[in-house]
């Protein structure tokens, strides 16, 4: 059972930079959960920098300890979890990068692991879901984001960080009546920008539904919506208000709070999660390190709700 390296064994500012200072030496065949970095940002439409997301998250994850004191989850005592490194993405060619990501996850999923991925821009969701669909069939989806990412094209391109969920519907990757999009907001190009999602059967939760309230009741509704099959979680850090996570490429005001993000992830407990991702972390826009630190904590919370995790309730 690989374990994170404790702060009393090695100072937190020292040692090898893996997620939560896991050993980083395991083969996928020996794991239940593989933590993967996907350093890509050539699908980005605004500020680049998410290619440094996985490294930034690993750096800040040294502050995350292995026991969840709120939920009593002990993921590292329950599952074999390790950081297996990064996908070798192509920084010069987006189409080739997408092909490489899909091939990497095709190989990884042959070992029947759950994947927890660090991004990287949101383009990465499409090749990962393609690989997931081959392994698990059509997916339920919890998509937490400031944006719906359902553009048909961006500058004439069908694949970019704003298009993955339109392509996922067209390619039959999703069970469209088991999809929820949470936190979407901001300005648009037309009054009906969010309606395409609703026409597919998605539950679209605009951020105004979330303001000034606990999201535990919402997540009970979401579990009923997306349950009954395999579920993928795609969490864009820009779902959070820039006050909590300024280090991202396309920030939008009026977003979710950090406690609401915790409620959303903890509300996924009991679902058949087959993979999770945290994307669009661009550390260069946050010199305080708060954004990758928040991302690291949210990824740990994802580990805590995976199937098979034991709780000392």
Give an overview in words.
- This protein has one domain (19-304): 3-Layer(aba) Sandwich (Arginase, Chain A).
- 28% of the residues lie in helices and 17% in strands.
- It is built from nine helices and eight strands.
- The chain has helices at residues 53-60, 75-78, 94-109, 125-136, 164-170, 195-200, 216-226, 258-266, 290-304, and strands at residues 33-38, 81-86, 114-119, 139-144, 174-184, 203-206, 230-236, 272-279.
- Helix 5 links the parallel strand 4 (139-144) and strand 5.
Name some characteristics of this structure.
313 residues, eight-stranded parallel β-sheet, alpha/beta, Arginase, Chain A, globular, 8 strands
In percent, how much strand structure appears in the residues? Answer: 15-25%
Note the total helix count: 9
Give the CATH superfamily.
Answer: Ureohydrolase domain
What global shape is seen? globular
Distance between the termini: 22 Å
Which percent bin holds the helix content? 25-40%
CATH class: Alpha Beta
N-to-C SSE series?
EHHEHEHEHEHEHEHEH
Q: What's the arrangement of strands in the largest beta sheet?
A: 2-1-3-8-7-4-5-6
